[in-house]
Write a structure and sequence with these properties.
Length: 293
């Protein structure tokens, strides 16, 4: 993709997702994710009913009157986007590759975070870690993230979720919100996910194409595995084959859902033809509602 075309695509995505983030997400995003903890705000004189554990003994000794420390919720967050750029992400039968949809979702999350003055970082991974961008703030940083997503050329086609989780755990020193965007065609990542989720707020976003769930009855069909490169002929008129194909998809989704649930993390499954804006809005509202209770 040449520079002019890339910049045009970046601008198009910015216009689309910035409008969505302003109109739909600022309030929901703000409410759905808590800050890293409590930060010091000020010292004031002790009043009847205050918690004596909050007394600032240094100020009390200096002034001769009891004072307490006031803390407030620390609203600034660090958002980390872990994006699967393996071979299977470059698949699509509905006008867009899954990877293009994931790029728009990332842009929406990034601009929602930017509206709340949060830092955003990016990790692109296949069966190796392709690119890491440290979390930062600002419009230019968000645009760089979009450019990298649009222009990614992965060196490998496989998927290593375990490696991505371990790397993220090592580079993030403070508690963060980690959005993991993938089709989750991988195995053996459960333990690494649990370790990551102990420290960070993890959210899995499962993106899939309708043809990954339902094989059409179109006779003999030559197919190629996007990650291994292997090719084979399938007789799509065989009902048992179509049933096996659908069952394989559901098993994979169920494994991913279970892995995130056992790790104490959130998970949402999104078909490529669905409105990701509506799905994320509902997710934010649900999280905010549960947090209020």
């Amino acid at each position: 993709m040449d520079t002019a075309e890339l910049l045009k695509k970046v601008r198009k995505i910015e216009i689309k997702t910035r409008r969505l983030s302003r109109n739909l997400f600022t309030g929901g995003y703000h409410s759905a994710f808590k800050g890293r903890g409590m930060s010091f705000s000020e010292v004031r004189q002790y009043q009847f009913g205050d918690d004596i554990r909050a007394i600032d003994w240094n100020v009390t000794a200096r002034t001769g009157e009891p004072h307490i420390k006031i803390f407030e919720e620390e609203r600034e967050l660090t958002v980390m986007l872990l994006v699967d750029v393996s071979g299977s992400s470059f698949f699509g039968t509905t006008g867009q590759f899954k990877q293009e949809i994931l790029t728009e979702i990332c842009a929406l999350l990034a601009f929602s975070a930017d509206n709340n003055n949060d830092k955003v970082g990016l990790l692109l991974f296949s069966d190796r870690n392709e690119l890491f961008i440290s979390p930062k703030k600002g419009r230019q940083h968000m645009l760089r993230i979009i450019r990298e997503l649009l222009n990614v050329q992965p060196s490998d086609r496989g998927t290593d979720l375990t490696g991505a989780f371990q790397y993220t755990r090592n580079v993030l020193k403070k508690r963060s919100v980690c959005f993991i965007l993938s089709d989750f065609w991988a195995e053996g990542y459960d333990a690494a996910l649990r370790v990551l989720a102990r420290r960070h707020d993890c959210v899995g976003i499962h993106c899939w194409d309708p043809r990954e769930r339902k094989l059409p009855d179109v006779g003999l069909l030559k197919v190629r595995d996007a990650e291994s490169g292997r090719q084979k002929w399938l007789d799509t008129t065989d009902p048992e084959l179509r049933h096996f194909y659908a069952e394989r998809f559901e098993d994979n989704r169920a494994r991913a859902t279970s892995a995130f649930r056992r790790a104490g993390a959130d998970f949402m499954s999104l078909q490529s033809t669905d409105s990701y804006a509506s799905a994320l809005l509902q997710f934010f509202e649900k999280r905010a509602h549960l947090g209020a209770h």
